[in-house]
Design goal:
Layout lengths: L2 H9 L3 E2 L1 E6 L5 E6 L3 E4 L4 E7 L5 H6 L2 E6 L5 H6 L14 E2 L5 E2 L5 E13 L2 E13 L6 E3 L2 E3 L9 H6 L6
Antiparallel strand pairs: 1-11, 2-3, 2-6, 4-5, 5-10, 6-9, 7-8, 9-10, 11-12
The structure holds flavin mononucleotide (FMN).
Length: about 170
């Protein structure tokens, strides 16, 4: 299997755009843009995000006992790019404020999910940060989506017929 085939296929998978942050005991903030954010478990409430083991932020997150996932909203593309850029102060713009447990958060994010670290799982060249959700906060804004190397926003299709949903026992989805 060619690596390019793998990356091309995965680029077709739409993902959320998040900025994952933490702060250490000395007050040093760390953060990176991630599309690999996903729900894992409802009981207990667990989520995951994958972090490149070669990333400059990896040591900070591997040592952290908590992290905050900021789910970006439409219009926050520049923030996504800034938190993916190397060799800059990603916090210099001052738009992240102390939020849940004092971690850097975006007041206008369409969701924030504050976690304690449940497990750190090594998986190839990435680490999987599994977080136990301690607090979750949402705002009524359309989320930003990343697909095919572009940012976009979801366009809802018509809701399926209620009778069909009922026949399929899909009343909650
Ligand atoms: C839309 C987007 C999604 C990304 N998703 C991830 C991700 O899920 N995991 C990850 O480790 N890096 C991801 N990155 C790359 C990181 O944000 C960052 O660029 C990388 O960790 C290199 O940063 P460094 O200079 O701190 O080493 C993504 C970048 C972009 C633009």
């Amino acid at each position: 299997m060619e690596a390019a085939d793998f990356t091309r296929a995965m680029a077709r998978v739409p993902g959320p755009v998040t900025v994952v942050t933490t702060v250490d005991a000395a007050g040093t903030r760390s953060g990176f843009t991630a599309s690999s954010f996903s729900s894992v478990s409802l009981d207990p409430p667990l989520v995951l995000v994958c972090l490149d083991r070669a990333a400059s932020t990896h040591p900070a997150f591997a040592a952290a006992d908590r992290f905050l996932v900021n789910v970006l909203a439409e219009g926050q593309e520049a923030i996504a790019l800034r938190f993916a850029a190397s060799g800059i102060d990603r916090f210099a713009a001052g738009d992240l404020k102390p939020c849940e447990a004092g971690m850097p958060g975006l007041p206008d994010a369409c969701a924030r999910v504050a976690c304690t670290l449940h497990a750190l799982v090594e998986a190839g060249d990435h680490s999987i940060l599994v977080g136990r959700v301690e607090q979750a906060h949402t705002r009524d804004r359309p989320p930003l989506v990343h697909c095919d190397h572009a940012f976009s926003r979801p366009v809802p299709v018509a809701r399926p017929d209620e009778e069909l949903l009922s026949a399929l026992h899909l009343t909650e989805w």
